[in-house]
Amino acid sequence: MNGSILAVSRRLLAGGLSQLLLSILLFSPFTATNAYEPTWESLDQRPLPQWYADAKIGIFIHWGVFSVPSYGTEWFWYNWQGTKKQEFIDFISKTEKPNFAYADFAHRFDATLYDPKYWAEIFAQSGAQYVVLTSKHHEGFCNWDSRDIGTTWNWNSMDVGPRRDLVGELANAIRDPSVVSPKTNRPVKFGVYHSLYEWFNPMMAYDKSTNLTSHTFVDSKTMPELYQLVEKYQPEIIWSDGDWGVNSNYWRAKEFLAWLATNSSVKDTVVWNDRWGDDAKCKYGSYWTCHDNYQPDHTVEHKWENCMTLDKTSWGWNRKAKYANYMTTKELVDEVVATVARNGNILINVGPAADGTISPIFVDRLLGLGQWLQVNGQAVYGSQPWKVCDQDEYIDVYYTRDNELLYAFLTKWPTDNEVPLMCPVVSENTRAFLLGVKNADKHSVEVVSSTSVGLRSSVEQAAVTIKLPNLNPDEVPCDHVWVIAMTAIRNLDDDAISDMKIS
């Protein structure tokens, strides 16, 4: 779509464009000949961009006006004035003057120490391949220059608070050529989180009063915001949320996604999640998120993402959090391994403070993950789930594979240095080695025994014992989760049995 038509469509959206007229504009003769139709069936035909399949690890950032009270949860406003929980009412009574309004917090959301370059460097060092920033949470505050939409006056980061384009600054910092992942040497991708819904927006209340037969909120605010975010910042991830209990037809989601995949400036590389309506969640999307902390206990063939947070109690910065509320580096690495083994990506959330600082405890965990990936990233980035087996449950060993090697992730180092694996079927050419170990000839990994079975027999009947080398503490390649790489595994793929030679 050319720029003039897109500009017209955006202005019409802001004035309450009907769904029919929107479809005519988006799928007029000016559109591409290979247009995706605004149906889930058509959109599902779009291949997943390879970069996302290979990336595995992203960073989530929850940052907004809720970062000012930073008390309990990013749902502070709703808990205070929506459900009216006494704890939050008491907090305001103790800390603020009478007649205090939530909007007054926005003046303190100042981002005075916000350093997007530092953020980008930390995220890259963590090994993350993409970053997703909250552009707008359910409170409705826009973290970008949304002033020309016309419905965010004094409730965006340019009019009040930081008086900075928070989204634009981080997008530029992430895309700086110097920001690359140390292990993959690839640029980090930038994306945005955007809530379809707003708790207390009167236009949303009006649409609810019509039983959602009107689309005032969607046409005047939600859709103009999404189109503007794509036009201004070219995000390669659109992370939608706030679709709760409403059909995607109300949100006009399919029309937007068809435009995104067909005519937008990021049409070839962008990905989106599944939170576009109760008919879409865990069913449609480039990848599925299903629910927060989604972690299935088996391999899911459709690409999925585990969005989780380092502070187990909150997505936003929480001053109430205790040390025990934060994931340890070991817990984080374990979560990454379990996710990747089952065909998932992991989106690791941090909550910056209102002034733009990121707590050292978040930085410590992210850098700890980055150090682990420097040793073991070969088994993570670009890997595939192993169709035969994703986990030896008895000993908590997870598996991934690439075109040459099978990787076994040991979440515990065995006391006798011997690891019995029930899934791999070895061949006479099978060799094994420990990723990151120095002087591999001296510290070799030995395949000490195996039970030979037919390739189509039950996997539980197969067994191979791997004997790890005796290592001094300073010779152990990493502190958490050690990876054994194996070559010439006979059942490397259950569809194409391979007896590959040692490389």
TrEMBL record:
Role, per record: Alpha-L-fucosidase is responsible for hydrolyzing the alpha-1,6-linked fucose joined to the reducing-end N-acetylglucosamine of the carbohydrate moieties of glycoproteins.
Annotated keywords: Glycoprotein, Glycosidase, Hydrolase, Signal
Annotated GO biological process: fucose metabolic process; glycoside catabolic process
Top-level taxonomic group: Eukaryota
Taxonomic placement: Eukaryota, Sar, Stramenopiles, Ochrophyta, Bacillariophyta
GO CC terms, sorted: lysosome
SMART domains documented for this protein: Alpha_L_fucos
Enzyme class: hydrolase
Domain Alpha-L-fucosidase C-terminal: 396-487
Signal peptide start and end residues: 1-35
Family: Belongs to the glycosyl hydrolase 29 family.
Species name: Nitzschia inconspicua
Any GO molecular function: alpha-L-fucosidase activity
E.C. number: 3.2.1.51
Record InterPro entries: FUC_metazoa-typ, Fucosidase_C, Glyco_hydro_29, Glyco_hydro_29_N
UniProt protein name: alpha-L-fucosidase
Glycoside hydrolase family 29 N-terminal domain location: 32-378
